[in-house]
Design brief:
Layout (H helix, E strand, L loop, with lengths): L18 E3 L5 E3 L6 E3 L16 H24 L7 E9 L9 E9 L5 H14 L1 H6 L6 E5 L1 H4 L1
Parallel strand pairs: 5-6
Antiparallel strand pairs: 1-2, 2-3, 4-5
Amino acid sequence: MTQQGEQPGGKVLTRSEATAHGGRNGYIETPDHHLGVKFSVPQELGGDGGVGTNPEQLFAAAYAASFQSAIGMIARRDGITFGTSQVTGVVGLRREDDADPSYHLDVELRILLPGLDREQAERMVQEAKALCPYCRALGESVGVRLTVLDEETAG
């Protein structure tokens, strides 16, 4: 088996595995059977928009959960309390121009931290960005927009 890319050192704490069958119009499954998901190609990409999900929805969910966990770690570390937080991942595909056949990710995280003022929330979001493994993995290759919501605009 050929492996590309260099992995940094350090102890691997957890590892997950999923296998895709049939690409965007197939399904994925995990060896432990905790996840088995049917995919459907969205109409915007020429598919039938069927009942299945798509890779972008799964990435949005995973990224939002990871980022929210990073916020929770910071809150526990610093003794900060606030209401029930919410992180919504929004992931899309875009093209730079019609001549470019490749897709690029378009990513936004919408973060609600009720009970914190804007300055506290912005600070926690920036600290979470440095802690979240998804943020670090994407680095500057994907311009992730981090939008701090207040309770009035979160509705």
